[in-house]
Amino acid sequence: MSKRHRAKYIFMTLGLLLALISSCGTALAATGFKDVTDGHWAVRYISRMNALKIVGGYPDGAFRPDQAVTELEAVIMAVRCQGGGAGYTATVPFTVPKWAEQDVARAVGLGLLKSSDEFYPEAAATRAWVTRLLVRMIGKEGEASNNLDRPTFTDSYLIPAWATGYVQVAQASKLVGGYPDNTFRPDAAVTRAEMAAFLGRVQDRAPEATPLINGRVVEVSLSQLTISTAGGEKRTFQVAFDVPAYDEGGPISLLALQPSDRVALVADGDQIKYLEKLAAEPISAVVNGSILTVYPEKRTLVVEVTGGEYRTLYLPPDGDPVISGAGGPGLAALQPGDEVEITLNAANYVTGITVISRTQGSITEGVVYDLKPDALLITLQGDGGSLASYRLAEPVHVIVAGQRFPTVKDIRAGDRVRVTVEDHAVTTIEVLEVSSRLDVSGTVVAVVPASGALTLEVDGQFQAFRVAETATITIPGLVRATLADVANGDQVQAHVEKGEITRLEIKGRQVEDKLTGTVVSVDTGNRMLTLKDEKQAYQVYKIKDNARIVIDGEDGTLSDIKKDMRASLRLVDKEVIFLEVDNTRAGTVVSLDESGLLLVLQDQDGRRETYVIGKNAAVESRDGRDELDEIRRGDYAEITLDDDTVTGIKLRTELTLRVEDIRTEWDRIDAEDEDGDTYRLYIRDGVDLVVPGVDFPDVKDVLEGATVRATYLGDDLARVEVLQPQRGQVTAVNTGARTVTLARYDGTTATLDFHEGSEIIAGGRKYSSLSQLVIGNRVEAVENVKGGYTFKVMQQVTGTLVADVDVYLLPEDGLVLLPAATPWRQESYDVAQDVYVHASSGSITPASLKKGGQVRLYLLNDVVYEIEVI
């Protein structure tokens, strides 16, 4: 998007200033604004921003949620959201009203505005412009600057180049999203309601950096609320009967709050001015098992789940979950052996614990599950899997066959023991079998698959085990792993039953059935391939005799594969069954050194790679660039490698063209650029054709006169996209900033630049002056081959309907009208499929178009795009 010219403007009216700072008017809804009902989609954020004095209403008690915000208003709201600009003095590099200088200076100081920015205080703030402001508010300017990928919206081509990184970051941070039709609409003006919601999302993302008080409900009544804050402090607030209170669905009663609910408050001293019940933490998992150990001081518990897996679970840092059935509050009320159901939120924090059953200490023979001599506590696991914990007497008598004077410290987890219990304390422990059952983690030192022997290093000591023939062995990525797949150095977790390993799980190693990497060498005689994978590790694979080999998109042989080719392969039983290779890499140019020797590319996953450019490397581009020094940062390029050296570079070029002819017999579109140069676009050999509204388009779906964007990779055509025109009513014309604001027929707004190359077509004549457009014009705007927009002004026809009209079921002769200019002659008109029907006094349905009704039609090229009932 070309740079707009700065223009003089008048100061904002006093009414706009009051809209930012005035307090609520008469309370007609929870917000106190007469035009924001309890059912408004942004009511929660509007009320919050009002309570925080970030934005208020107008003197007449209205908020005007659908009114567009100006760039100055957006900046002031953002500054106030981050603490305000009062008392801040600095040089302001922009011309703004005197009353706004401190806020703008503060915005510059915070990095929300920069002197190099295009800042037009009176212009409507667009979604692209506000997105940059929001990203700067969360401190991710650097991340946005380094993000060179184009967003995936269907209208991403409309997003200015400077805004693409900001849009990517804002979308990932859930500040701004797209519309249901997967458009972003970067030029749409942001409304006051939308701005309140955007700022609310900034606060939601980092609540600790806002004036909001966050915590969990401890106790609630009609007049008081006690919460536990994230820092563990308990605070009690007074609550008025009419305090604005919301959840995600809208206004709520204070009595809707329950203990442990998460809330956010705005308070003046101990008086609540705004209350928000935060969304209940979604239950992402339910864990059923038995309590092994509880560490109240670390807010942690260990649970054995079904299948014998141990899981360590954590309580949230901002309050205690609800614990029921334990006989008391807090983790201390839980006992080892308790059968529990535990709910976890998306962050895997515990949100609730229910004790289903509690085992009493009745096990006198079992396996030592846990032993804490210093805490005088032993936990046994019975044969049925249940647990029982006992206090150790002082002293306790220990019996181990063949060992003199054993002590409790000679007993290990996994030993099978028999205990004697007197007065609820263990007085005698007899070891019946060493390592009867235990879970152990260690490093594989030696493995002998033939004999089933496995030696582990555990806590610095070697321990030998026999692996049962029926043992379950798990290696990530392998479906049927065996002991032969276990390697020295593997980190493992083993479950031992009666001295044998019955379950073995390999940790920290991934075996892939689908791999990518770079060819290091090929042994054609033994059909062996050496590959350097994505982790820069070398792997050797056997290639099956019936493996399919594809080279540069065509079937090939093993002898055709060369060193440094990029390879993608599939494995079956650890052998290659499919192998695809080519010599290319692709990505966005991050840098090219001055000597032209090193090229840095960033791929679609964000990985960066540096390549050496060959002396005679060829540069190919459809726009005529064929030298290394003509490559620009941000170019998308495909490179060809030979022995790690770049031998060819294809640059992506996008051209805006006008369709002149369709040659269906040749699958060809003939188009011209602004200079009249002809391009023949053949839609074949993998060329992607995109026509809005058509799922599987063909060249016959492209109309003569349409504007298309042709994308080339080098000299090869890769994609042709028909550009979607924007239709609607002109609501603002800014001749200084050279912008046009449209209220589009789909209900959105857009602000388009009228820069060099733009033109207006009205009454069969072309104009280059923006003054030819006036507010109220209905227009069609589409990008043109000159790099600007062509605005076509629609023709108006007023008349009387000859018959009842259902615009979605029109007869062959279309809509029939007696025009006011020629009432003696009927005229019929074609109607667009997505025609906009409304009344001058409000909305209307197509069924309301009755015979004899007075209507005004807006049409272009004899097609009606808008019907207004007068």
User: Overall mean pLDDT score?
Assistant: 83
Amino- and carboxy-terminal Cα gap:
39 Å
Strand neighbour order, sheet with most strands: 3-2-1-6-7-4-5
Main sheet makeup: 7 strands, mixed
Q: Considering DSSP H and I runs of 4 or more, what fraction of the residues is helical?
A: under 10%
Structural class of the helices, strands and pairings? mainly beta
Q: Oligomerization state of this entry?
A: single chain
Rg (C-alpha, Å): 36 Å
The number of helices is 8
Q: What is the structure about, briefly put?
A:
The protein has 8 helices and 52 strands. It is mainly β and 870 residues long. 31% of the residues are buried.
SSE inventory with pairings:
Layout: H1 14-21, H2 43-51, H3 71-81, H4 101-110, H5 127-137, H6 141-146, H7 164-172, H8 192-205, E1 213-220, E2 224-229, E3 234-238, E4 245-247, E5 250-251, E6 262-268, E7 271-277, E8 285-295, E9 300-305, E10 310-314, E11 322-324, E12 339-344, E13 350-357, E14 365-372, E15 377-381, E16 387-400, E17 416-422, E18 425-433, E19 437-448, E20 453-458, E21 461-474, E22 491-497, E23 500-507, E24 514-523, E25 528-533, E26 538-551, E27 554-555, E28 566-572, E29 575-582, E30 584-592, E31 598-602, E32 608-620, E33 636-642, E34 645-663, E35 668-672, E36 678-682, E37 688-690, E38 707-713, E39 716-722, E40 726-734, E41 739-744, E42 749-753, E43 759-762, E44 765-767, E45 778-783, E46 789-793, E47 795-801, E48 815-819, E49 827-839, E50 842-843, E51 854-860, E52 863-869
Parallel strand pairs: 4-7, 11-13, 16-18, 21-23, 26-29, 32-34, 37-39, 43-46, 49-52
Antiparallel strand pairs: 1-2, 1-6, 2-3, 4-5, 6-7, 8-9, 8-12, 9-10, 12-13, 14-15, 14-17, 15-16, 17-18, 19-20, 19-22, 20-21, 22-23, 24-25, 24-28, 25-26, 26-27, 28-29, 30-31, 30-33, 31-32, 33-34, 34-35, 34-38, 35-36, 38-39, 40-41, 40-45, 41-42, 43-44, 45-46, 47-48, 47-51, 48-49, 49-50, 51-52
Helix pairs in contact: 2-8, 3-4, 3-5, 5-7
